[in-house]
Amino acid sequence: xxxxKTWPPFSRTSRxxxxxxxxxxxxxxxxxxxxxxxxxxxxxxxxxxxxxxxxEGAQRPxxxxxxxxxxxxxxxxxxxxxxVAAAFDIPELWxxxxxxxxxxxxxxxxxxxxxxxxxxxxxxHGRGVRSDPKRALESFLxxxxxxxxxxxxxxxxxxxxxxxxxxxxxxxxxxxELGHPAGQCNLGICYLEADLVEPEEAVKxxxxxxxxxxxRAQYSLALxxxxxxxxxxxxxxxxxxxxxxxxxxxxxxxxxxxxxxxxGEGFHGI
Length: 270
Known about the structure:
Serine Threonine Protein Phosphatase 5, Tetratricopeptide repeat, F-box_motif
């Protein structure tokens, strides 16, 4: 038989609802559905909810909300979407761009920023191209203009290394406000190393980044707790954050965790 045949065999023609074929099972399904609906209507309220929670109910509860659609996603304001996606990494950004056409169009500047970020790293570290710090900074700044928090962090780091600390701090602050953990951590370090030290602000940003899983911020927060810098001294909490940072791969935190265990400091009752 020719495998390129496009029309289905006769046994499957009942799937085409345009043609008035009689399906003997359809009347039986309607009767079963009607009977199940009557049972649901006459059952007790508790029993109905239990069945719905268990996935046995045939209908969605009246007070439930419909599942999101492409239209509801598209209604999200572009500026809100850009702010939410500013701290996304590449896989998250590409996934968000496939949600709907409106998101794809709104996130185009951030996708361009990701490409600029890649080129900036290549120019900075000489990966596949000749190292060129000037072009690296230009690429990072262009990415930052398009709203990428990661590009803000890299541009801020280059400014910091060049001694232009106020410009670097300003970029860290922008990235931190957008929720980028590395930007939050670096901003905390800026507050500790600035001419006018603000340890309380540093602890605030360390904590936000630490909660997001940034190992360097977890270690820095542990140091502040251990020394009572910007926060009340709490060795037990410091030991916990040392341990979390160590689990995240921070080598200094591993050593401090070892010291805490060897002396018993901070781990009593844990």
